[in-house]
Amino acid sequence: MKKIFFIIISVFFALNILHNTFADTDKEYDTAIQYYNNGEYREAINLLKVYVTKIPEPSAYYRIGYALYKLKKFDEASKYFEITYLVDPVFSPQKTGLPELPEDMKRISKPRKKALLKDDMPSAEIKAEQTGEGPEPITEKGHLEDIKPVETQKPALTPEKKPSLQEPQESDDTSPPVMFPKQPVRKMPLPPMGASILSVWIITILFLIEIAIYIFFSSCLYIIAKKLNVTAPWTAWIPIVQIWTIVASAGKPWWWILLLLVPIINFVIGIYLWMLITENLGRNKWLGLLMLIPIVNIVFLGMLAFSKTEGIYTAEAEA
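Structure (tokenized):
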């Protein structure tokens, strides 16, 4: 009773610990989502990194990557997007949905291209616009060579267009900022032909060993029953019915079979019956305990069946 009470308390205590652990994890995740929706990406990243150490959820990895992307940490964001794909290759923002931002952050307009162009204009042209004077005419080749680098700097505006494409909420496209190549579905490798043949042989050998052990046990029990003059010794060859042969060989009435149906008691009764059979064959009854030892019990059973013994007990002798 004390053991049962101790087991119940242990299970209850373990369930309580698991409940508290998952409750703390959910609280951290909810707090991180609040920071995330408020645009406080650094706090959200710190909490989500702690959360994924406990529960590797692909949506949490994706939110970390998107928050890093918003903080312009593109390399680190790409790593977390890759982790998202590795954790769940089927993960797609179209299924789970992208994290939503507050309405005030969605209304932020894109920076105008004209403003970028104006910032990248040469300082001489800006001064000319402020003073109202036109640009000086180009008459020498040296001036052309000086101005050429200015023309080559204009294509450098393209990398600065990235911030204008950072907010996927403003467009209908819900694809992640970083795309990954689709990997083919891996098929389970088939076992080689040699391994399958070997497994078939092993199963066949084990089946033959079981049949051989059953035939040996039944034949030994049949010979023992004949030695003890048990009525109908042929019942030793029939499964389940051979229990009656064992009880009869021990010199006990048929209702002892009912004792073998009771758990725990049947184990003790079975050993006691083999001790009686050993004693009836003219040997020390304590040798019947050898039936508890694997392999040895097979040898001992053959010894009882095929050895010549004196002072054999029979039902006729008792009468």
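The chain has a mean pLDDT of 70. The radius of gyration is 44 Å.
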